[in-house]
Amino acid sequence: MKKNTEKQPHKGKKTGLIIILAVVLLIGFVVGGGLFLANHLLSKMNRVDLDKELDTYVPRDQEYFERDDIAQGDTIDPGDIAWTGIRAMTDPDVKNILLIGQDRRPGETGRTRSDSMIVCSINKRTGVITLVSLMRDMYVPIPGYTDNRINAAYVFGGMSLLDEVIKQDFGIVIDGNVEVDFNGFITTMSRLAPLDIELKAYEASYMSQSGNGWSFHEGVNTLNADQLLYYARIRHVGNADYERTERQRRVLNAAFNKLKTLGATEIYDMAYAIMPSLTTDMTNGDILSYVSYLISSRPAMGGNYRLPVTGYFSDQVIRGMMVLVPDLKQNAKMIQTYLYGTTVN
After folding, report:
1. What pTM did the predictor assign?
2. Does position 284 have pLDDT exceeding 50, yes or no?
3. How far apart are CA 291 and CA 103, in angstroms?
4. Could you tell me the CA-to-CA distances from 200 to 193, 216, 230, 248 in Å, in that order?
5. pLDDT top residue among 345 and 235
6. Could you state, in order of their start, the residue ranges of all structural domains in the chain?
7. 310 to each of 9, 60, 136, 245, 275, how far by Cα in Å?
8. At 70, is the secondary structure helix, strand, or coil?
9. Could you tell me the fold of the domain covering 37-192+275-340?
10. Whole-angstrom distance, CA of residue 283 vs CA of residue 300
11. What is the pLDDT of residues 244-276, one digit of tens each?
12. Cα–chain center distance at 70
């Protein structure tokens, strides 16, 4: 695999929203109300049955490729890519929740491509929560389909197929999923904002020139919900999608830390408003088990990482798509080390 020096990545279609803040809600659902109140709140979430989701898979003969208009011709034959078999890591002390952001636009129904994917890993042995962003333009094998961008897996087969791709290609088992779209983000952040975010000089300048009448400076700024969304979507300054995923994790960390300062009444009001914006495949029992751990152990926010890892992917044009082709074995080793402290690959 050709090593990448992380040059400026390609421009795709306008990015959709996404910071998935669902995980930061989990610590508050049983505060002040006991089991009955917790189940009442959780019942407001939208639910996905992964077994039934199999019936909604897009047929293989209807799969498609989201080609880029600016692509100037393929740089590699897809048949020349040799994928490496990956072994899955398991550890009873590590639970991985996949946070999925959809860029569903007004008038659209059903699944769209996953604009953002963040593995939120809770390591009970170390007491640390680790975040790993999966870049949407990674070109990977998708079980039952032609190799494609990883974000195609969600529209073709939902949570179950995306989880299968992550296990097959990176050796990480996903224990549960939470999905939110644009409206969900606004609902979440309107309850949790403002948040203090440190802006780089070019980020502050870009946001100040947005036409929204904002004025920002280099350093720590206090951002409201609309400003946080705008910040999270920036990809035309800095290192494009690479820094965009860093901004998502930065907001997620700030939100988590803010939530820990709220009182029981504030947490309840926020949870009540946000629940209908979230979709999950987890049962109430699953979620409450995480809540119990988070409340009793108060884990720390740990490292923030991104796949593909610098130096272990190449920029290519395949089937008219500008993509990142990862060295699966090396990337699997890295993410397993991030989350488990060791690797089986």
Report:
1. 0.79
2. yes
3. 28
4. 20, 10, 14, 15
5. 345
6. 37-192+275-340
7. 12, 32, 15, 14, 36
8. coil
9. Aminopeptidase (3.40.630)
10. 25
11. 778 877 887 788 778 777 776 777 777 777 788
12. 26
